Every structure is written in C-alpha cells, then in structure tokens.
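Q: What structure does this chain adopt?
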Amino acid sequence: MFTKVFKNPAVKNLLYLGFCLVLGFGLNFQVFLLVVSQTEYANDHAFLDIQKSYTESNFAEFIDTQTTSANNLITYYDYENIQIREAEEELANTNNIETEKQKKKEEVSNPETSLKKINEAATKLEITEEILAKGEDKTIKPGDKILLVGDSIIKEQTGIVFERGLKNMGFNVVREGVYSTGLTNTAYYNWASRVEELNNLHNPDAIVVYMGANDGQKIYSETDGFYYNVSNQNWQLEYEKNVREFLEKAVIAESKVYLMGHSVASTADFTNKFKKVNSAFSLVSDEFENVEYVDIRDRFSPDGRYNRVIPFNGKRLYVKYADGVHFTKHGSEIAFDELQKAMADELEK
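A:
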C-alpha cells in the first residue's frame, strides 16, 4: 500500500516540494546566522574604533596638558632667573659704587693720580682736535670705493639693494654685514675696531653705515662699571660715546661717512629704542665734518606713524617684513633713494 502511495506522482511531487522547503529553510537559517554574526562583529569593531579614538583623544589632551604645564614651568624658571640676574647686577652695581667711592678718595688724597687724569684728558682732547682737523669736506665721484657696513640689515635684503644701486652709480663696493651686532655690546663685537681694519684693508672713499637695530639693550659704562638699561638717561650718554668712538675710527681714514637712521617700527618698543639711537646718531654726527646723518623717518612716516605700504616708482607695496624692522626690497629701494639724495650734494661738487 505504501509502495503504491510513494509511486503516485502527486505524492512524489509533494514530497520533493517538502524536501526543497526543508532544505531552503535550512540554508536561509544558515545565512541568517551568518548575517547576525557579521553584524555583531561589525558592531564590536565599531565599538573598538570608538574606544580607540576616545583613548587617543584623551592621550592627546593629556600630552597637551603636560606640555602646557612644562611651558609654564619653563616660563616660571626663566622669570626666576631674570629676577636672580637683576638682583646680582644690582648687588654688583652697589659694590661698584663703594669701589668707586674708595677710588675717588684715593685720587683726592694722591696729587699724582689727579695730575695723571688731567694729562689723559688733555691727550684725548688733542686726538679729537686732530680728528676734526682731518675731517675736511670730502667729495666723492663715480669710480670711488664705498664700504657698506652694518648688522643684518646690510647682511640681507637692504644691503643687496644698496650694493646694486651704488654699483649702478659707478662705484666700487665692498659690503660687510654681521648678524646681531651694533654699537652697544662692544664686548660681543667691536665695530670701531673692525671699521678701522676695513679702512686699512680697503682704503674706501666713503662708508655707508646701517646699524643700531640691535642696540636697545643694556650698555656697559667703563666710567663707573655699571650696566644701564635703555630707559636710563646714562644709557644715552654711554651710547653716544660708543657712536663717537666708531666715527673717530672711520674719520681717521678721511672717508666720507653716511650714517643711516631708522624709521618708525611696527611696535612701540622698537620705535622708542630707534628714537634714542637716531638721537645719538644725529647729535654725534654734527661733531664731524665728514659725517652725514641720513634721516629717513619723514619719508617712511610723514604722519609720524608706522606705515606698512608706501608708494614708490609707481608701486604701492609693503615696505617692511613682519617684524616691522627689516625692509622688504621695496622698502630698501626707498631707503636707498634717501641715501642717493644725501650723496647728491657731494656728487655735484
């Protein structure tokens, strides 16, 4: 009986259909399990990514916090070191005062010492008179040799523009710029000695000087052994001495000297320092026949303020770099134009 039933085509088809349904269900179930497992894996992986990102973010924040703390600590120690140095300088100045008082007492009680001081002063006066006598009005002409000296201003862009401009005017040019130098810290670099060496080496007919940007620092006084800040009135007196010593070495070679002044800077700090430097340049230059102070302030700041853009040769461009001190090529060309004007009177003679 069962044999007949199974042999029935309708039953066979029904059984085959049932088998396919069972098989299909089984496959669909396996696919379902696979999808569920992959979904769980993806979720776990995404969770791990989130956790990793969170950990990295916390670590970066931790590093930033530690870096800030370290910088604050460094700043604190720098401040402490400055306080210590200033205290040491103040103590040294106090000791120097006592030493000077003692020296003065000894000089007063010793007539020979006082007489020696008088003779030294007389000798210095004779040297100054000799320098001024040599400082006869000197003319320059194309073919003459011009020495360009200064700090980074001459070492870099402005020095290049000046050298090219002077050569185009027919002069032979020797340029020497030294970074971070000036007339304040003579222990670091002594321009008075160096310009004397350059004079002996090249025998120039004229010297163009552009320095002073680094001179707004403490200056040492050989007279009393003190260091004076730029805000102290004694700083001005000591700086004028250094400018005078430098110019004396230049004028001895009977060279015409053009001492370039500074324009208004972008910061009040530099502008105030430049005012003091310019004042010394102008005052001491008047003591020498062959020295001319080239004042460029009105050209760059006709309104007395810092101007970033100035028209020249049909162009309106930036005149200084971001530091507000060093000239761009455009600014250097304007400064050189002022030098040419100063030289024009000598060239016409």
